[in-house]
Amino acid sequence: MLFSSLPLIQPILKAVDKKGYTTPSPIQEAAIPVIVDGKNVLGRAETGTGKTAAFSLPIIQSLSKLGNKRHPSALVLAPTRELVEQIKDSFVSYGSFTQLKVLAVYGGVSDRPQKQKLAKGIDILVATPGRLLDLINQKAVMLKFISHFVIDEADRMFDMGFIVDVTKIMNMLPKNKQTLMFSATLDREVMALADEHIGTYDVVDVANEKVDLEHITQQLFYVSKRKKIDLLKLHIKEGPAVQTLIFTRTKRGADQLSKLLSEMHLKVAVIHGDKSQHQRLRALQGFKSHKYEFLIATDVAARGLDIPALPRIINYDVPEQADAYIHRMGRTGRAGLSGDVYTYCSKEERLLLKPIFKELESPLSSTTHPFEEIVEAKKIQARPFAKKTGRHRYRLSGRKR
Fold first, then answer.
1. Which of 20, 63, 267, 321 has the fewest CB atoms within 10 Å, measured from its CB?
2. Is the pLDDT of residue 260 over 90?
3. Right CATH for 3-205 from 3.90.1300.10, 3.40.50.1970, 1.10.760.10, 3.40.50.300
């Protein structure tokens, strides 16, 4: 299917074509016709599958017919400031051939410019729950004209403790509106929220689509905890000079690794929950503009990041949850481009691999193993040997650690 086959008006198709997109993703193909039809939707899709366009394109189409109003007609809630900015940018890009005005509001920065823009009038408001409530309490924004309401990454709203604020906002909205809720999981909490506040809705579920590993090469490195930094230095020194997103399990680990890489005179930035909004945006924008070679991130800070053409990801620490690995991996190998994922696994972390292997086994064909397994040793010279399973491992010369 092509975008031109979807029930979208010409200005939107022109904007989509300008971005170089011709074929909709599964969530876009499934959700757009339902949303254009005016139905409430509970959608399940992983981050990086194009769900922002799935709800932004129909909303732009609907609002473009209404004409400009002073108060917002569409409200989108997202859990992180970075995601709010990305959603805003998508609305601006896809609505470039309309007159719609979009504003992003979030904490960590002065609210004065946000209130000034609200006073001039906007059509679409993208917000974090806390800052939106602050603006509502200051009577800087009015929600009684909202006709389209979106909760993006609903499961993260629960994980990050925002659901109380989200519920307060939902109770302030008009009853006569279209509600769209998107989540990576449809667990009991998310379903209960939908049942209570949406009422009748259609479920659009594409999360069970197979993970596309065609363009991603994954490698697992067994390495002692104290030798991880040596392995990282080796990959940096002997590998191609490419931008790299590095994941750590903790904020402290991210800061420590950043210090080590900085001492190597590498251009590195860090994002995690203790960084201010200004610091996180500056780091992300600097990485996207290639000011920084390396971006170190924790899972909470990095979820939902949209970094085009990212060639390499290094899991400095094995994630504690299998779905976190999938989210990490989903940052690369997009839009047909190739990507590499390296995972450093210490002895203490090996039990964490089992659920990851289980998660990846289904999407892979029988001739493909999720990892090329490598044992860390003194010399980086591999001698392959075949196993009965048809998979491959690599034994390195030197003593195993």
1. 20
2. yes
3. 3.40.50.300
